[in-house]
Amino acid sequence: MFKLSIENMRIALSSIRSQLLRTCITVFIIAIGIWALVGILAVVSALRNTILDDFASMGANTFTISQYDVADRMAKNKSVQKVNPVITYAQAKEFKKEYLFPFSTVSISFNAATNIEVKNDLMKTDPEVSIIGCDENYLPNSGLQVTQGRNFSYTDVANDHFVCVVGSDFSKKMFKDYSPVGQTISVRGYKFKIIGMLKEQGSTFGKNEDQRVFIPIQIARSIFNAANLNYDIKIGLLQDNLLDQAVDQAILDFRNIRRLTPAHTANFGIERSDDLIRSMMTQVNMLNVAAWVIGLITILGSSIALMNIMLVSVTERTREIGIRKSLGAKKKTIATQFFTETIIIGQLGGLIGTLLGIFTAYGLAQVMHFNFTIPWNAIIAAFATTFIVAIISGLYPAMKAAKLDPVEALRYE
Fold first, then answer.
1. Bridge partner residues of 208 (DSSP)
2. What does the DSSP 8-state code read for residue 78?
């Protein structure tokens, strides 16, 4: 049996070499389908990795009270969405004072400004830095790690110290020859001493998370004063199993702060980190399904092309089949020979398409700043798909070749 398989492979390779141009075209047609399938699946996998990494840093035990529920607004028609009042600083401060849920920490923050220019004595940045006003609990509640220096202390925030924590880009550009900790930067003419630098975050959907400056919230309020500022309240929990109760208590407390009766619907949003991850994963899974649909449509065309090529091969080799049958070759032997040839062509196409898909996905992941890993699921799916395509495409031509009458085959011109 083993010798017969080797002989069938030798004959198949010999036939492939004799029709090299036709084989290359067939392999390329199959490769295009696998290229599309593997490439899209690999990009979707990289997107999933990026989302999981981004939200893993937030922790599964955090939630935010904000002006709107982002997931709810995405699901509804914009024309019928109600306008919620902003969360004022007084409401945020009152909540932080009144919320006494065990094992919890509350932070208050707001986006003070974007596209800000930051200077020091030697140079200045491009006007692309974001300023965040926050308290001492914001960084740990947001999963942001300080790699150099320290976080804000209660004293820094309470006494309005002109200190700041910066993103990792400051060590690459403004302070590339030395540590930024202990240095002084100027924001809107106000000088801040850098007390900490964050771990590199990278870009999320085109937004650079490493070009941010965090300053005490009261100082941010005085420098970047504006009407109707909206504040975010982020709550972090130290225990895994208290999130549901903590959210319920937060809703109750904030409804009381806003003087809402039981008849009134909530005019604020609750964003749970675990819900946000699930929502994003749902969207990614939809992309995954779309990738399979697109890839399978392309592969359907590839399988038709492969079957057509094998039918042509059977027709061209009719006399050869007649000679083999006249020398005693069985139907099973003839069928296996053509079947082996189909599988080899299919697997060659799958291999080339897989390599092209991986390299293409890697390039796109680098451009879009996704976390690329080798998509083993996509690779296994590609080879399984090409094997199935080869079986489906090669079954009819192999059966046709096996059923040829040896006398009629020998007479074929």
1. 203
2. G
